[in-house]
Amino acid sequence: MASARQRTGAGAGLIGDGKAEAIAELMLEVAQCFFRIRALGQKTGLITSWGGGAFGFMRSLALLGPLTVPQIAQMRPTSRQRMQRLADELAAEGLVEFIDNPKHRRSKLVQLTRKGDARYGELNAQLMATASTMGVALGEADIRKTTEIVRQLSDDVKARSERPS
After folding, report:
1. Average pLDDT in the 56-65 region?
2. Angle, to 10 degrees, between the axis of helix 18-44 and the axis of helix 140-162?
3. Is the Cβ–Cβ distance between 108 and 101 less than 8 Å?
4. 81 confidence band (pLDDT: 50, 70, 90)
5. CA distance 48 to 83
6. What is this structure's pTM?
7. CB–CB of 27/153 below 8 Å?
8. What is the spatial distance between Cα 110 and Cα 54, in angstroms, rounded to a whole number?
9. Do residues 110 and 72 lie in contact, with contact meaning Cβ atoms separated by under 8 Å?
């Protein structure tokens, strides 16, 4: 694979720092991978056609139990309005339902319905089936290390995005 310097041209103003170049290239590769994952997710139904993460939304509810829409939005780099749209879409399909929140009268909790729990199980099985056929040349230890590196980079980006300008 060509380095960032080779792809953009040596005179394109890249910092000569090897680590900085490596991080920049990693960030660009992760972004490209994200868009490919999103396209595959839309094709397989793991992501809605308008880009909403139905699977991720349902996964949060399956793992954490009932949550408010603002709580779900805080867990993602997205707006409460976008998560509300997704919650409404999933409710219209009978996959989630809004229930009373004992801690807040106006902010309902969202929980999976039986149908939603079953659909989440189907989508999770589909994800695992797809994942089991990917990265055949990679070892589990390398994949786990890569996951940790991407997680650390993501945490760094998140912290930087939350700092006041």
Report:
1. 95
2. 100
3. yes
4. very high
5. 12
6. 0.74
7. yes
8. 13
9. yes
Q: DSSP of the chain, one letter per residue?
A: ---HHHHH-TTS---S-HHHHHHHHHHHHHHHHHHHHHHHHHHHTSS-TTS--HHHHHHHHHHH-SEEHHHHHHTTTS-HHHHHHHHHHHHHTTSEEEE--TT-SSS-EEEE-HHHHHHHHHHHHHHHHHHHTS-TTS-HHHHHHHHHHHHHHHHHHHHHHHS--
CB-based burial label for 132 (10 Å; 0-12, 13-18, 19+):
exposed
Q: pLDDT confidence of 13, banded at 50, 70, 90?
A: low
Q: For residue 40, what pLDDT is reported?
A: 85
The letter for the amino acid at 113 is T
* Mean pLDDT on 143-151: 95
